[in-house]
Amino acid sequence: MSLVDAHSALFDAHAAAGLFSGYLRSAGRPLPWQELLDSAPDLPWPSFGSTSVRPVRRGEVVAAPVVRAPVSLVRGDTVVFTGQMSDPRDVWVDRASAAGLRVIQGYVTKATRVLVAADPFTLSSKARRARAYEVPIVSEHDFGSMIARLV
Question: What are the boundaries of each domain within the chain?
């Protein structure tokens, strides 16, 4: 397997599956963790140390609340993009530039006004830095609405 699209979700999933299948083949039979796998449903959940966290049963679907603080842009604000979005990156760069925003390629600084992410919950290095600097992370849809108010 060649590293063509490393760090894209689909490629990373394929790479992880390939690595895992290699581990399974090398483990042989019987599976060394079969006893642990069989006992998993009876194991207790770990303590979270907080009364505000509710344990979730295996298989239970929980919708994560999305809290959005209002973010407004003004001409001259700095914007950074991360992830593979629905529209090509150069299209978003052109839209941001046309709205009077400065687009920085490659990194987030304390002066960045907003990080536009294909997945606002991403754990990319740009997103980690944005969170550390308290820079808002928004979806491309939300960013589209934000720049529409500027034009």
Answer: 9-39, 78-150
